[in-house]
Amino acid sequence: MPYLKRDGDVFVLYLGAEVQNIDSENRFHPDLITELHALLDEVEASEGPAALVVTSNGKFFSNGLDTDWLFGNFDQNCWYLDRVHSLYTRLLTFQMPTIAAVNGHAFGAGAMLATSCDFRLMRADRGFWCLPEVQLGMPFTVAMNALVTGRLTNQVAVEAMTTGRRYGADDAIAAKIVDGKADAESLLAAAVAQADALKGNRKPNLPVIKRALHQHILAGLAVETTPENLGFSPS
To answer: What's the pTM value of the predicted model, to 2 decimals?
Structure first.
Protein backbone atom coordinates (compact mmCIF):
# COMPACT_ATOMS: atom_id res chain seq x y z
CA MET A 1 0.00 0.00 0.00
CA PRO A 2 1.15 3.60 -0.47
CA TYR A 3 2.59 5.45 2.48
CA LEU A 4 3.54 8.90 3.69
CA LYS A 5 6.69 10.33 5.24
CA ARG A 6 7.60 13.83 6.30
CA ASP A 7 10.88 15.70 5.85
CA GLY A 8 10.50 18.93 7.80
CA ASP A 9 7.66 20.80 6.13
CA VAL A 10 7.69 18.56 3.06
CA PHE A 11 5.38 15.55 2.85
CA VAL A 12 6.64 12.67 0.69
CA LEU A 13 3.91 10.43 -0.72
CA TYR A 14 5.14 7.07 -1.97
CA LEU A 15 2.95 5.31 -4.52
CA GLY A 16 4.13 1.84 -3.54
CA ALA A 17 4.74 -0.15 -0.38
CA GLU A 18 7.63 0.73 1.92
CA VAL A 19 9.00 -2.80 1.67
CA GLN A 20 8.68 -3.19 -2.06
CA ASN A 21 9.75 -5.62 -4.73
CA ILE A 22 11.96 -3.66 -7.11
CA ASP A 23 9.70 -4.74 -10.00
CA SER A 24 6.45 -3.60 -8.37
CA GLU A 25 4.68 -1.47 -10.98
CA ASN A 26 2.48 0.60 -8.63
CA ARG A 27 -0.58 0.23 -10.84
CA PHE A 28 -3.78 2.01 -9.87
CA HIS A 29 -5.91 -0.67 -8.27
CA PRO A 30 -9.17 0.85 -6.94
CA ASP A 31 -8.04 0.18 -3.37
CA LEU A 32 -4.76 2.01 -4.00
CA ILE A 33 -6.67 5.03 -5.34
CA THR A 34 -8.76 5.10 -2.16
CA GLU A 35 -5.61 4.86 -0.03
CA LEU A 36 -3.93 7.68 -1.96
CA HIS A 37 -6.90 9.97 -1.41
CA ALA A 38 -6.84 9.17 2.31
CA LEU A 39 -3.15 10.07 2.51
CA LEU A 40 -3.77 13.29 0.61
CA ASP A 41 -6.55 14.06 3.11
CA GLU A 42 -3.98 13.60 5.88
CA VAL A 43 -1.56 16.00 4.19
CA GLU A 44 -4.28 18.60 3.68
CA ALA A 45 -5.30 18.34 7.34
CA SER A 46 -1.87 19.68 8.34
CA GLU A 47 -1.35 23.33 9.17
CA GLY A 48 1.27 25.88 8.24
CA PRO A 49 3.77 26.07 5.38
CA ALA A 50 4.05 22.77 3.54
CA ALA A 51 4.65 21.14 0.16
CA LEU A 52 4.18 17.67 -1.31
CA VAL A 53 6.54 15.36 -3.19
CA VAL A 54 5.07 12.34 -5.02
CA THR A 55 7.47 9.50 -5.74
CA SER A 56 7.98 5.75 -5.38
CA ASN A 57 10.62 3.09 -4.82
CA GLY A 58 12.28 0.63 -7.14
CA LYS A 59 12.19 0.41 -10.91
CA PHE A 60 8.80 2.07 -11.47
CA PHE A 61 7.19 5.38 -10.61
CA SER A 62 3.91 3.92 -11.86
CA ASN A 63 2.84 1.80 -14.79
CA GLY A 64 -0.63 3.30 -14.63
CA LEU A 65 -3.89 1.40 -15.02
CA ASP A 66 -4.32 -1.91 -13.24
CA THR A 67 -5.17 -3.75 -16.43
CA ASP A 68 -5.64 -7.08 -14.65
CA TRP A 69 -8.36 -5.55 -12.48
CA LEU A 70 -9.80 -3.55 -15.39
CA PHE A 71 -10.23 -6.47 -17.77
CA GLY A 72 -11.46 -8.69 -14.96
CA ASN A 73 -14.14 -6.12 -14.09
CA PHE A 74 -14.81 -4.58 -17.47
CA ASP A 75 -18.43 -3.84 -16.62
CA GLN A 76 -17.02 -1.22 -14.23
CA ASN A 77 -14.51 0.25 -16.66
CA CYS A 78 -16.05 3.73 -16.84
CA TRP A 79 -16.38 3.97 -13.05
CA TYR A 80 -12.77 2.83 -12.68
CA LEU A 81 -11.38 5.33 -15.18
CA ASP A 82 -13.20 8.17 -13.47
CA ARG A 83 -11.64 7.09 -10.17
CA VAL A 84 -8.21 7.36 -11.83
CA HIS A 85 -9.13 10.81 -13.15
CA SER A 86 -9.98 11.89 -9.60
CA LEU A 87 -6.30 11.68 -8.69
CA TYR A 88 -5.40 14.08 -11.49
CA THR A 89 -8.01 16.60 -10.40
CA ARG A 90 -6.86 16.29 -6.79
CA LEU A 91 -3.23 17.03 -7.62
CA LEU A 92 -3.94 19.80 -10.12
CA THR A 93 -5.88 21.71 -7.47
CA PHE A 94 -3.89 20.67 -4.39
CA GLN A 95 -3.66 23.30 -1.68
CA MET A 96 0.15 23.28 -1.57
CA PRO A 97 3.01 23.08 -4.11
CA THR A 98 3.52 19.61 -5.60
CA ILE A 99 6.65 18.04 -7.10
CA ALA A 100 6.81 14.64 -8.82
CA ALA A 101 10.12 12.85 -8.28
CA VAL A 102 9.94 10.38 -11.17
CA ASN A 103 12.24 7.65 -9.89
CA GLY A 104 11.65 5.15 -12.69
CA HIS A 105 9.28 4.22 -15.50
CA ALA A 106 6.15 6.38 -15.69
CA PHE A 107 3.81 4.90 -18.29
CA GLY A 108 0.26 5.69 -19.33
CA ALA A 109 -1.88 6.80 -16.41
CA GLY A 110 1.25 6.86 -14.25
CA ALA A 111 2.90 9.35 -16.61
CA MET A 112 -0.29 11.42 -16.42
CA LEU A 113 -0.15 11.38 -12.62
CA ALA A 114 3.32 12.90 -12.70
CA THR A 115 2.07 15.45 -15.23
CA SER A 116 -0.67 16.47 -12.77
CA CYS A 117 1.92 17.77 -10.31
CA ASP A 118 3.09 21.38 -10.48
CA PHE A 119 6.68 20.41 -11.30
CA ARG A 120 8.56 17.25 -12.23
CA LEU A 121 12.10 16.00 -11.69
CA MET A 122 13.17 12.78 -13.42
CA ARG A 123 15.85 10.23 -12.70
CA ALA A 124 18.73 10.98 -15.05
CA ASP A 125 20.16 7.55 -15.83
CA ARG A 126 17.17 5.30 -16.45
CA GLY A 127 13.40 5.22 -16.75
CA PHE A 128 10.98 6.53 -19.35
CA TRP A 129 7.95 8.81 -19.44
CA CYS A 130 5.62 7.29 -22.03
CA LEU A 131 2.02 7.20 -23.24
CA PRO A 132 1.80 3.76 -24.90
CA GLU A 133 -1.97 3.77 -25.52
CA VAL A 134 -1.69 3.93 -29.32
CA GLN A 135 0.49 0.81 -29.32
CA LEU A 136 -1.87 -1.00 -26.95
CA GLY A 137 -4.99 -0.19 -28.96
CA MET A 138 -6.45 1.77 -26.04
CA PRO A 139 -8.31 5.09 -26.35
CA PHE A 140 -7.62 8.18 -24.28
CA THR A 141 -10.60 9.24 -22.24
CA VAL A 142 -11.94 12.77 -22.62
CA ALA A 143 -10.37 13.51 -19.24
CA MET A 144 -6.96 12.11 -20.15
CA ASN A 145 -6.96 13.95 -23.46
CA ALA A 146 -7.74 17.20 -21.63
CA LEU A 147 -4.92 16.63 -19.16
CA VAL A 148 -2.24 15.75 -21.70
CA THR A 149 -3.13 18.41 -24.25
CA GLY A 150 -3.48 21.02 -21.51
CA ARG A 151 -0.15 20.28 -19.83
CA LEU A 152 2.03 19.67 -22.91
CA THR A 153 2.62 21.75 -26.00
CA ASN A 154 0.52 20.70 -28.96
CA GLN A 155 3.28 19.06 -31.00
CA VAL A 156 4.69 17.21 -28.01
CA ALA A 157 1.19 15.94 -27.22
CA VAL A 158 0.80 14.83 -30.85
CA GLU A 159 4.08 12.93 -30.71
CA ALA A 160 3.51 11.43 -27.27
CA MET A 161 -0.09 10.36 -27.92
CA THR A 162 0.17 9.14 -31.53
CA THR A 163 3.59 7.46 -31.50
CA GLY A 164 4.02 6.16 -27.96
CA ARG A 165 7.55 7.59 -27.84
CA ARG A 166 9.55 6.77 -24.73
CA TYR A 167 11.16 9.90 -23.32
CA GLY A 168 14.26 9.57 -21.21
CA ALA A 169 15.21 12.42 -18.90
CA ASP A 170 17.08 14.55 -21.44
CA ASP A 171 14.39 14.17 -24.10
CA ALA A 172 11.66 14.85 -21.55
CA ILE A 173 13.42 18.04 -20.45
CA ALA A 174 13.83 19.16 -24.07
CA ALA A 175 10.11 18.54 -24.66
CA LYS A 176 9.24 20.38 -21.40
CA ILE A 177 7.49 17.28 -20.07
CA VAL A 178 9.71 17.48 -16.98
CA ASP A 179 11.61 20.40 -15.51
CA GLY A 180 14.89 18.80 -14.51
CA LYS A 181 16.80 15.65 -13.68
CA ALA A 182 18.98 14.22 -10.93
CA ASP A 183 20.94 11.06 -10.27
CA ALA A 184 19.03 8.26 -8.58
CA GLU A 185 20.82 8.88 -5.27
CA SER A 186 19.99 12.59 -5.20
CA LEU A 187 16.59 12.69 -6.93
CA LEU A 188 14.43 12.65 -3.81
CA ALA A 189 16.65 15.14 -1.99
CA ALA A 190 16.51 17.49 -4.98
CA ALA A 191 12.71 17.24 -5.12
CA VAL A 192 12.40 17.82 -1.37
CA ALA A 193 14.70 20.86 -1.60
CA GLN A 194 12.63 22.33 -4.44
CA ALA A 195 9.43 21.65 -2.53
CA ASP A 196 10.84 23.17 0.66
CA ALA A 197 11.69 26.36 -1.21
CA LEU A 198 8.04 26.65 -2.26
CA LYS A 199 6.36 25.69 1.04
CA GLY A 200 5.59 29.29 1.92
CA ASN A 201 3.23 29.48 -1.05
CA ARG A 202 0.72 27.33 0.79
CA LYS A 203 -1.89 30.04 1.23
CA PRO A 204 -5.66 30.07 0.68
CA ASN A 205 -5.21 31.71 -2.72
CA LEU A 206 -3.00 28.93 -4.14
CA PRO A 207 -5.80 26.44 -4.98
CA VAL A 208 -7.84 29.35 -6.36
CA ILE A 209 -4.96 30.21 -8.68
CA LYS A 210 -4.58 26.56 -9.69
CA ARG A 211 -8.27 26.11 -10.46
CA ALA A 212 -8.23 29.19 -12.69
CA LEU A 213 -4.95 28.19 -14.31
CA HIS A 214 -6.23 24.71 -15.14
CA GLN A 215 -9.89 25.50 -15.72
CA HIS A 216 -10.01 23.99 -19.22
CA ILE A 217 -8.25 20.80 -18.08
CA LEU A 218 -10.53 20.53 -15.06
CA ALA A 219 -13.59 20.90 -17.28
CA GLY A 220 -12.35 17.93 -19.32
CA LEU A 221 -11.56 15.93 -16.20
CA ALA A 222 -15.13 16.52 -15.00
CA VAL A 223 -16.62 14.82 -18.07
CA GLU A 224 -17.99 11.46 -16.99
CA THR A 225 -16.54 8.55 -18.92
CA THR A 226 -19.13 6.62 -20.95
CA PRO A 227 -18.89 3.82 -23.53
CA GLU A 228 -19.82 6.37 -26.18
CA ASN A 229 -17.01 8.83 -25.45
CA LEU A 230 -14.60 5.94 -25.15
CA GLY A 231 -15.50 4.99 -28.70
CA PHE A 232 -17.39 1.84 -27.72
CA SER A 233 -20.96 1.08 -28.67
CA PRO A 234 -23.16 0.40 -25.65
CA SER A 235 -24.26 -3.22 -25.39
So the answer is: 0.95
